[in-house]
Amino acid sequence: MPVFTTYDGTRLAYHEEGQGEPLVCLPGGAMRSSAYLGDLGGLSAGRRLILLDPRGTGDSEVPADPATYRVDHQVADVEALRLHLGLERLDLLAHSAGAALAQLYAAAHPERVRRLALITPTSWAVDLQPTTADKLVAAARRAGEPPYDKAVRAYEEILAGVDTDEVWDLAAPLFHGRWDERARACHVANAHEQNEAAAAAYATPGASDPPATRAALRELRARVLVLVGGVDCNPPAAHAPRIAALFPYATPAVQPDAGHFPWLDDPARFARRVEAFLATGT
Fold first, then answer.
1. How many angstroms separate the CA atoms of 196 and 33, rounded?
2. Cβ pair 174, 233 in contact under 8 A
3. Which of 40, 53, 232, 249 gives a 20 to 30 Å CA spacing to 193?
4. pLDDT digit string, tens, across residues 123-135
């Protein structure tokens, strides 16, 4: 298991899957270890995946200062990883909450990003979150059969402020295109792969300056892919073009029948789409 030392002396770990050009991968959660990414639906067949365990997760050390869990402090972790790998520029993939870190990294180090793939990304760091109504409309489309009726009602409770393990368990099917064994395993694993204290600090006040970040991203020369799931609630499919519009060279894409973890719902389709983007920029 490779490790490197970041700016504050914390030793961070990453895991490698596959062969080929490196693709640095940032997990979501927020603050979930990279284990759930697996081989990203077989994307490792043509790429060497560099799967970072964020500070305080997986095999990475807990930092001395818990304030450094805030996402803007972790930008330096990504830069330290780039230097450790000896890469002039990164191909970077970020999932869900990891997209906030990727956006802040691209804004701070635009010359170091070659390709940027944002997978079912959150966009609070640029003040472009879907509304509660947007999320509820997307969720309601799945009502009409178990377990989705209960999931929709649970998701309504979550959006109203209820935050318990029980309600999240009921809502979990909404985050997957198919509520099968693989989806259930992904949901169950979150309990021991996520650092909840770190997640609570990830987006605390001061973590981002949305106007400044948006302005910096408008100058980004890298090609960007914004890939969302056709049945995801956050972000809904209709949100992809809005996120892509933040960048001068971005392509929005929707994977049909996929949820928040599209490499689980249709692995081959996901891997083909991302690899095509990494190869061509579109």
1. 11
2. yes
3. 232
4. 999 999 999 999 9
pLDDT in the model for residue 66: 97
Cα 116 to chain centroid, rounded: 12
Outline where 88-225 has alpha helix (H): 98-108, 132-140, 148-159, 165-171, 181-193, 196-202, 210-217
Supply the pLDDT for residue 143: 87
CA proximity to 107, closest of 203, 213, 26, 209: 213
Q: Does 137 reside within a domain?
A: no
SS (H, E, C) 253-270: EEECCCCCCHHHHCHHHH
Closest of 236, 49, 274 to residue 266, by C-alpha? 274
Residue 207 belongs to some domain of the structure: yes
* pTM exceeding the 0.85 threshold for the entire prediction: yes
DSSP track, 151-169: HHHHHHHHHTT---HHHHH
Q: How confident is the model at residue 152 (pLDDT cuts 50, 70, 90)?
A: very high
With respect to residue 175, please indicate whether it lies within any of the assigned structural domains. no
Q: Which domain holds residue 46?
A: 3-130+195-280
Counting the structural domains of the chain, the total is: 1
